[in-house]
Amino acid sequence: MFFSSKRVALLLGFSIALVTTAFLSLVEGVSTQALLVGSLLAFSSSYILIQVALDFLVFREIKKIYTMINKLRRKDLSFVEEEKLESSVNPLRRINREILDYAAHKQKEINDLKKMEEFRREFVANVSHELKTPIFAAQGFVYTLLDGAAEQPKLRKKFLKKAARSLDGLDLLVQDLLTLSQMETGGIKMHYEHFNIQETVQEVFDQLESEAEKKGITLKLENTQPATFVYADRQRIYQVMINLVGNAIKYTKQDGKIVTILFTESDTGVDIVVQDEGRGIPTGDIKRIFERFYRVEKSRARNKGGTGLGLAIVKHIVEAHKSEVQVKSKVGEGSTFSFMLPRGEKPIQPALEISQPESEEVE
Ligand SMILES: Nc1ncnc2c1ncn2[C@@H]1O[C@H](COP(=O)(O)OP(=O)(O)O)[C@@H](O)[C@H]1O
Ligand SMILES: [Mg+2]
């Protein structure tokens, strides 16, 4: 750099010495020796002072800014983590700080965008793949019918049934996708109420009874009390339970196994536990099963007719209740899914119009 601190200091020091000597020479009776000493002193002191001041206050900071800008140009944002500048009165240091803040902010934005883009790409690929499977199957059955199978009543019914089952799967998938997207855009409002979760579990059992019976699995509700009241969105919790109990049945193979639901009430809330004696989930997969379309056994699970979105929906609903799903599992032994809900109160019988049911005393 042409304007190095040394050069500027030399130039200024020389000028100051010159001016000082010129002034001194105007004073009467000053010897040449004194003039020489005076000019030397003026030069050296101003040189040192100017150089130090420039170096510390200006050039060093400017150099830092340049290095930073160069790094920014090269999109090398590693210095953002390394460098930590304290706030200072030096305006150049403050500029430095501003640049650093700006770069840090941009880096975060870039990282988030990259992550989102990757997630979007993966999601679109997954959705297309999942949609393709039932559509291809239904298409195949319909074409087989058109190619002549429709003439034979027995075959006609068989292929129509198969096509209908594929379309049902498609319907389920689209419904799950809609639920997820509505939840993410905040389109679904939660309707909190006090209700007996044991009744919900009973409804879930009624719904899944035949499926469990077919596999020789017993559904058991272990209750220490006749009723367990929670304060939550009844419809959504039903959805959670259908998914969890459905999975427990689906991923349990042998006869004679039990799927147990139990509740533990504490001061903080009610812990709802769904326990199975099924195939279990490998430790490495546990943290991923809540991702959309993630399945432990890719090919086999597809035959079971799941959408791969069940647990993603469960996670969303439970999180909307400010809670979290816990999973414990051991391969070959079974899995336990649990989550906490706030305790509820027994609602007052709906015979009268009650203005504020929550604050009312319950017997
Ligand atoms: N109770 C369970 N036992 C064993 N594996 C399970 C259980 N629940 C879920 N999983 C695993 O997690 C994956 C994701 O579950 P889910 O989101 O409900 O999708 P789906 O059941 O449609 O495949 C399943 O494919 C399965 O591999
Ligand atoms: Mg499922």
Descriptive overview:
The chain is of the alpha+beta class and 363 residues long. Among the domains are: 5-107, no CATH class; 192-341, Heat Shock Protein 90, CATH 3.30.565.10. The chain contains ten helices and seven strands. The protein has helices at residues 5-26, 32-73, 79-82, 91-146, 153-184, 197-214, 234-250, 283-286, 298-303, 310-320; strands at residues 192-196, 218-222, 229-233, 258-265, 270-275, 326-330, 334-341. A five-stranded mixed β-sheet has the order 2-4-5-7-6, covered by helices on one side. A two-stranded antiparallel ribbon has the order 1-3. A hairpin with a 3-residue loop joins strand 6 (326-330) and strand 7 (334-341). Helix 2 packs parallel to helix 4 (91-146), helix 6 (197-214) packs parallel to helix 7 and helix 7 (234-250) runs antiparallel to helix 10 (310-320). The longest helix is centred in the N-terminal third of the chain and has 56 residues, at 91-146. The radius of gyration is 37 Å and the shape is elongated. It starts with a helix and ends in a 22-residue tail after the last strand. 21% of the residues are buried. Residues 359-363 have low confidence and may be disordered.
